[in-house]
Amino acid sequence: MVGSGNVVFARDFENRKRHAEQEQKLKEIENQIPSGYQSDIRMYQKYCRETEQKETLDSLSDYLFISITEEAVKKNTWEKRVVALRKYFLVTYGIRFDEALQIKLVNIRKLYKEEGRERLIRETGKLPVDIRELLQLIDGLDARAKAICLVNLDTANRPNEMVNLQIQDFQLDGRIVNVYLKKQDKWHNKRLQPGTIQAVQNYIKEYGLQPQDYFIGRRRKDGEFDGVKISETAYRKQLKKWTGYTPYNFRKTLVAFMHSAGADLSTIAKQTGHQSLETLDKHYLNVADATVDKFMCYKKGTI
């Protein structure tokens, strides 16, 4: 088909319609605010209501200033607020942080260097726990809780990795579970121990789980099981209820155990899914307190 000297393809309208739909979808993805940002956004909105301010860059810098000077939030919490609110202003108001605000944020950040705020920059994080005591605790749980806890311990999965697991991701004969690593945007095989395999098999049999069921799922009030995906927050609360610990306690416990058993960084990273060995070394590996204690055991007559 030809019109006005230009070639017009028969499917031109269909193609343009599809391209427009694709652009709309991509725009929707770009404008999505991650769920992890919502609590920081709500706190800023609450501050604006309480101080009777509009949501502007001025009220934002005011909020970030008092976050340090009055709330005394830790530096990593403050940085998370900046990231969340940057996204919020871009998506909600189409406002980008300009150079003037960036300079202001740099100066606000310097407040952490003032005397008396040293503890606000300290990164404590979650600590590893005694793995034998943890295993004894897990052994006393019911079939579902036991299987979930053992898988989390074996894999050192992050919360988002745990809640995304489905039964079809397990290859029990090969002692493998296929985990989607959201941070790296890729799938990764992690090994499972024989005792964990048995616990998962017992769980599947007792609850009649199907391949499409989410591994964690949820127990309804009537006691019945739903193989639906739950939130990361719900999972953290469930694990805390069962064991008293968080997923990151589990993660650090496996790393510490493998390291103390002689595993090198590459071996540990293969199981945990860490992409950076430097990050693994910096944030997860420390000399164990027990090792320090061993060399600080003062004996009579040695001093």
Question: Could you characterize the architecture of this molecule?
Answer:
The chain is mainly α and 303 residues long. It has 2 domains: 35-121; 131-291, Orthogonal Bundle (hpI Integrase, Chain A), CATH 1.10.443.10. It contains 14 helices and 7 strands. The chain has helices spanning 12-30, 38-50, 57-69, 75-93, 99-109, 131-139, 143-155, 159-163, 194-207, 232-243, 247-260, 265-272, 277-284, 289-294, and strands at 2-3, 6-7, 170-171, 176-181, 186-191, 218-219, 225-226. Strands 3-4-5 form a 3-stranded antiparallel sheet. Strands 1-2 form a two-stranded antiparallel ribbon. A hairpin with a 4-residue loop joins β3 (170-171) and β4 (176-181). α2 (38-50) crosses α4 (75-93) and α7 packs antiparallel against α9. The longest helix is centred in the first third of the chain and has 19 residues, at 12-30. The protein is globular, with a radius of gyration of 25 Å. The protein starts with a strand and ends in a 9-residue tail after the last helix.
